[in-house]
Write a structure and sequence with these properties.
With 385 residues, this protein is an alpha/beta fold. The chain contains 14 helices and 13 strands. The protein is 45% helix and 16% strand. The strands form 3 sheets. The protein has a 5-stranded parallel β-sheet, with helices on both faces. Strands 2-1-3-4 form a 4-stranded parallel β-sheet, sandwiched between helices. It has a 4-stranded parallel β-sheet with strand order 6-5-7-8, covered by helices on one side.
Length: 385
């Protein structure tokens, strides 16, 4: 199982790094060992710095290692975000006090506790954004777009789809977080759309989520309260997409039975996808294996943070359709598979495919139906003499 090596789902440290390293003007320092730095650096592919504390530093104090790292980059960024890992958290060093004493402009340094035991990826993501406290201005126009995590393989596609939908609705986009078109300290617009409901942020008034056609329709209705252009989306674009999916699923079900599906990923996102699979494809949703703490919903949810649990769930449920990551793909090779959550290894991804919005729903069902048909044909061929 070499393909499935490495952490199954990242912790709060990677979430905090993902939230801040994508914001222009912020330099992120991981205060800990090189091992703590390696995983966030390898999966986020964004500029990160590390104090690289050694065994000697753990005994004598990590102050010098951190100061050397900060001094090397502090003139490059508006804010230095120091993410404290397990080492300074366990030893109890007063990192904040030390930095306030060392630097006269210590307001330009933000210290965030993000050890691996501090919580989930989503916890670290939200706590990091709260720590920098982006200002919200009632005088700004447009709609912010959040949930754009660099760990998410659908981030670029979700961003482009959100921009497209806002354009169709006659509304200008605001800041995109954390994406790079937002610079630290700039005021945000008073409204926010969520491209990932599991990473939604409390930044102004929430207009709702773009994952799932029903949630998208609710969000567009809220936009329609202040933008006259949203009517075409409600009257034409969303019904057209729904009709396309319905027609394709009806054709599929004339030839094949509805799939028995197991979904793995972030809880809220998988709940919305499961609702669409049930509505349009009459899918039997066997289980949702949640990477983060489950939220209440219509479907049976179990925590699935380790590979052994994934194998146990899939062996028990025996789905013929699996939505998830490379872990689920290798754990259940006999099922039709659609990748919807990282890691997605062993595949080439060149275009910016969304999971959110109209195009996200169309792309999802295109993948699901094709995967199910290919698997059905393979089984038929295997049974042929």
């Amino acid at each position: 199982m070499h393909e499935c090596s490495g952490p199954l789902w990242p912790c709060a440290l990677t979430g905090a790094a993902a939230a801040l390293a994508g914001i222009d003007g912020i330099g992120v320092v991981i205060h800990g060992s090189a091992g703590c730095y390696y995983y966030p650096s390898s999966v986020l592919h964004l500029p990160l710095y590390c104090s690289s504390v050694t065994d000697r530093d753990i005994i004598l104090g990590t102050e010098d290692a951190l100061i050397r790292t900060i001094d090397a980059i502090r003139d490059t960024y508006d804010l230095i975000a120091v993410l404290c890992t397990c080492i300074p958290s366990i030893t109890g060093e007063d990192i904040r006090g030390m930095l306030e004493e060392k630097y006269s402009d210590s307001a330009r340094i933000c210290v965030i506790d993000a050890p691996g035991f501090a919580g989930e990826y989503e916890d670290g993501f939200r706590s990091a954004i709260r720590a920098i406290d982006p200002p919200v201005s009632g005088t700004k126009t447009g709609v912010n777009i959040d949930g754009l995590s660099p760990f998410d393989p659908f981030r670029q596609g979700n961003f482009q789809e959100a921009l497209r939908l806002l354009g169709l609705a006659g509304t200008a986009p605001g800041a995109a977080l954390p994406f790079g078109n937002y610079r630290y300290g700039q005021p945000l617009s008073p409204y926010t759309l969520h491209t990932n409901p599991d990473l939604s942020l409390d930044l102004g008034e929430s207009l709702g989520s773009l994952v799932g056609l029903s949630r998208l329709e609710e969000a567009v209705r809220r936009i329609a309260s202040f933008s006259e252009g949203a009517g075409d989306l409600l009257e034409h674009d969303i019904p057209l997409a729904s009709g396309k999916i319905t027609a394709a699923c009806d054709r599929f079900m004339k030839r094949f039975d509805p799939p028995r599906a197991a979904l793995f990923g972030q809880s809220k996102t998988m709940q919305e996808i499961a609702l669409m699979l049930e509505e349009y494809l009459d899918a039997d949703i066997l289980v949702i294996g949640s990477r983060n703490p489950p939220v209440p919903g219509k479907f049976h949810v179990e925590r699935a943070k380790d590979y052994d649990t994934i194998v146990e769930i899939l062996s028990r449920e025996k789905p013929d359709l699996v939505l998830g990551s490379s872990f689920e793909k290798y754990a259940c090779p006999g099922a039709a598979f659609v990748g919807v959550t990282p890691p997605l290894r062993g595949t080439i991804r060149l275009h910016s495919r969304p999971l959110a919005g109209i195009e996200g729903a169309l792309a999802l069902f295109e993948s699901v139906l094709n995967a199910c048909m290919d698997q059905a044909k393979k089984k038929r061929d295997d049974l042929s003499p």
